[in-house]
Amino acid sequence: MRPAAGLWRKAKSGVEVNVRVIPRASKDAIEGVDVTALGPALRIRVRAVPDRGEANRSVERVLAEWLDLPRTSVAVIAGAASRAKRVAVVGDVESVDAMIRAKVAEL
What we know:
The chain is α+β, with helices and mostly antiparallel strands. It has two helices and six strands, in the order E-E-E-E-H-E-E-H.
C-alpha cells in the first residue's frame, strides 16, 4: 500500500483528510504520513494544548496554510476530542484533490 492511499477521500464539497495530531509540540508543522490503526493519517504537530478546542483551531490553521487556502476552508469534522481527526477541506473537489496529492508527494 502506498502511504498516501486512503489518507484522504473526495466528498461532495471538497476533500476529507485523516490527520493525527501531536499537541504541545515545539513548533507547528506537517511532518509526514503516519500509519495508524484507522489507516494512514497526515501527522500534524501543533504548539497549542488540547484545551477548549485550541489544538483543533491550530490544526485547521496549519493545514490551511500548508495548502495555501483560507482558514475558513478547513474544519475539523470528526474526532474533536481525539488525536485522530477527520478534517474537511472545502473547495473544488478535483483541484483540492490535486493540491493535496502534490503536497503529500513533497513530504
